[in-house]
Amino acid sequence: MTLASFSTFIKFLKESFDDSFLLREIPQVKSQVQSLKFILRHDVQKHLNQALALAQKEQELGLRGSFLIDINSPELGESPDEVKRTLQQINALGHEVGLLLPSIRHLSPQTTVEKFYEQQVLNLARHLEKIVTAPVFSVAFPEESFVYPENSYFLAQKTCASSALLTRWVLSDRREGIHLEALQEELNSPPDKILQVIFHPELWRV
After folding, report:
1. In the prediction, which pLDDT does 164 show?
2. What is the value of pTM for the model shown?
3. What angle do the packed helices 48-60 and 80-92 form, to 10 degrees?
């Protein structure tokens, strides 16, 4: 998948949908959505520089995306100073920087999801806020980990954003690839008013 095909796809979204939102905005507006909207979500565990390239392309097209970062991933591929600089660049382009948590399967057997939230999520979010120098509102596990504690701090505050909770209409470059033909068919009878598209920047050649 190339930057050119990425551009073609998000142009199609912009032309076919009424508007788009950031993840952090959905909890407040979901009940008010009357026409088709979309969310651009980026789960970033590798190649942060490629995430920046996608962020720049979206900004060129007048779109905003939500970039969820696994801040402790050893595969971001940059030094701490470079990570900080790149995340601040993404934020300065008008995009949202949120927190991508480790996959549940990577948690130790002694660490329940509830304990993980209680002990670590808030600290990780505050750590990311210091790096970006901006508030972090959206928090999610990677897409393969659709399990959440019902009474977590973030859910209680309505600031946790995840396709598992917020949208039934999800398209992922990892699971199905990006196929315009299939999406065009779905537009005839969409399963939800909000489409969430999940990108993984390491899959895109920039």
Report:
1. 46
2. 0.86
3. 10
